[in-house]
Amino acid sequence: MSTNEGKTAALEGEALMKVLESYAGTQDGAPGSCPYPVNDAMIHHWCDAIGDRNPAYLDRGFAESSSHGGIIAPPTMLQAWTMRGLRPPTPEEEAWAKEAGDRKSVLQVLDAAGFTSVVATNCEQEYFRELHPGDQLTHVVEIESVSPEKKTGLGVGHFVTQLYKFMDAEGAVVGTMRFRILKFRPPRAAD
To answer: Which CATH number fits the domain 13-36+85-184, given the four candidates 3.90.1480.10, 3.10.129.10, 3.10.450.350, 2.60.40.770?
Structure first.
């Protein structure tokens, strides 16, 4: 965790950028986990929703006789296995929050500085191995970078790039995801 400034409401310009830059390379929140291992039911739900009929995902006989040696999950499901949903915080997440105390996340710093609107701008995933039913995943998120203030069609804001690393039960990285958002000042309502 970082020792970033707690009082950010008055920060702007160079002072704000200095605080934002201090987040680069720091972990963003507690490690994430999924209470459920990779499983056939969720693979089927995903394939039904997407309309993907790849037999490597759905046909056990085909998958077992293929180079995969069994059912695999669609690679694009990578993030889905660790998405938090509406569950209460885990003991690890509660401990992380308690340890963080009044330190703010980079997104809270941006909120306090008036950049309260958000839009996802892009996402890049890289896969290092196939996922099979039974794999149990966790992830950590690092703030990779925060851009200087940019003027965009949505408004003035900062691009925040988060790097997710997804690991199996042995701690091996099975995939990564760069997720970039724009935190921007909402336009003022017309009087």
So the answer is: 3.10.129.10
